[in-house]
């Protein structure tokens, strides 16, 4: 079975809950916690789900927004499980067919 996972990024929503509506407002709050990011980097962090995120940045965001990583990151299933088989659409197992191996007759 193959299960393709994704995630929802809720940073903008959590910011709004704390009356933080401008991405640039996060820059000094992160800097207070030792995280130095440019305004452009913070903008991308807020507007796009990050592919990589340092644990230090995640912890700083959680501290700023008084939340947990689970509040920021929601795992989702992108594709439902797919069975890798010749008859993937069928839930029944394929019929088993026995094979007989015959050796050629040897002359003596």
From TrEMBL:
GO molecular function terms attached to this record: DNA binding
SUPFAM superfamilies (alphabetical): lambda repressor-like DNA-binding domains
Location of the region described as Disordered in the Swiss-Prot/TrEMBL record: 84-108
Domain HTH cro/C1-type positions: 54-72
Superkingdom of origin organism: Bacteria
InterPro entries in the cross-refs: Cro/C1-type_HTH, Lambda_DNA-bd_dom_sf
Protein name: HTH cro/C1-type domain-containing protein
Natural source organism: Rhodococcus jostii (strain RHA1)
